[in-house]
Amino acid sequence: MSSDDAVSGDDIEALALLHDPVRRSLYDVVASRGGDVGRGEAAEAAGVSRTLAGHHLDKLVEAGLLESGFRPQEKKGPGSGRRRRCIAGPGASGR
Asked: What is the 3-state secondary structure (H, E, C) of the chain?
C-alpha cells in the first residue's frame, strides 16, 4: 500500500459512524436517492423520528460522509415559508 492509499484516522472515524444502525440506514437512504433528500423524507424512509434523523444526519455531515444545503423555495413572495434544509450524498452537485 503506497502513501497515497493510506487511510487517515479521520477516515476511520467517519466510517466508524456507519456502525450505528440508524446512521447506516439514513446514509443508505440518502446515498441511494442520488439527489437531495429532506430530513423528514429521510426519517420516514428510515423509520425514525425527524428529530433523531436530524441528529444522526448532522453527525454524518460533520464527518464529511454527506453534504448539507438548502432547497430553493418552490413558491416566491409573502407567505412562501422558509427554505427547506436537505441532505445529499458526497459529491452531489446542484448547490
From this structure: CCHHHCCCHHHHHHHHHCCCHHHHHHHHHHHHHCCCEEHHHHHHHHCCCHHHHHHHHHHHHHCCCCEEEEECCCCCCCCCCCCEEEEECCCCCCC
Residue 1 binned pLDDT confidence (cut-offs 50, 70, 90): very low
**Using CB atoms within 10 A of its CB, is residue 26 exposed (0-12), middle (13-18) or buried (19+)?**
buried
C-alpha cell at 43: 426519517
pTM above 0.85, yes or no: no
